[in-house]
Amino acid sequence: MMPGLTVHHLQVGQGERIPWLLEELGVPYELKLYQRSPLFSPPELKTQHPMGASPVIEDATFNPENPLVLAESGAIAEYIIHKHGNGRLALTPSHPDYANYLYWFHFANGNLQPTIGRRMTARFMAQSLEDPRFISTDQRLHTALKLLDDQTAKNTWLAGDQFTAADVMSVFCLTTMRKFEPIDLSDYPGILEWLKRCTARPAYRAAMKKGDPDLNVEELISAKPPALFEGFVKAAEQAKIAEQVK
Ligand SMILES: N[C@@H](CCC(=O)N[C@@H](CS)C(=O)NCC(=O)O)C(=O)O
Prior knowledge:
Elements: E1 5-10, H1 17-25, E2 30-34, H2 43-46, E3 56-59, E4 68-71, H3 73-83, H4 98-126, H5 132-154, H6 165-174, H7 189-199, H8 202-211, H9 217-220, H10 230-238
Parallel strand pairs: 1-2
Antiparallel strand pairs: 1-3, 3-4
Residues 10, 13-14, 40-41, 52-55, 72-73, 109 line the site of glutathione (GSH).
């Protein structure tokens, strides 16, 4: 393997954030793409890390004999920013928006994504959208979306005036992730405008072109949910809830 960074990315998934971050920072990388089989990771990706999930990076820059292998999008983002990006796209403790930066960076994986995942699980379990388990997860999701909408309506970027890794961490949850859980964003103009700003960035477009050229970005950022991922629709059919994910 050549010394340097390799990103293992399962297409149509949260791994898209890592090439985007690297493009923003101008750090060279090699991208290895994997396809869902039919919904989860294929065997080749499972050999890269015990968790078998994407993204995973291999970094041979500092120790070519024994490359570092790292998983977890948040850990990978912080690692890249500090080991390869000179701290760019993160805010330091002396910055007035430091706490905002930390909050929104962690909100993506620590709150928004699990909240969306919970509603998806409730949808499968409940068999009806009137079920109180679905309704409570739905209310929680709308609380999270309202919070995000207020923040993006008042600020150009999530942490404030500066584009940061908090934006990179969050966009996936409201674009590609909606191919697995249909979320209508019509009531959230702040989010919709922020998604436009983020996805207009040349680094985002470059990363998506390399990693997920078949995804239609305009569809991903529209108010109505994008078409569901095919493997997910099949899973819904098997669970006999196809009507609920439409
Ligand atoms: N918390 C992890 C989650 C990783 C994860 O679940 N990735 C999904 C892609 S969206 C995946 O690999 N799914 C396939 C599988 O787990 O088999 C992170 O942030 O990287």
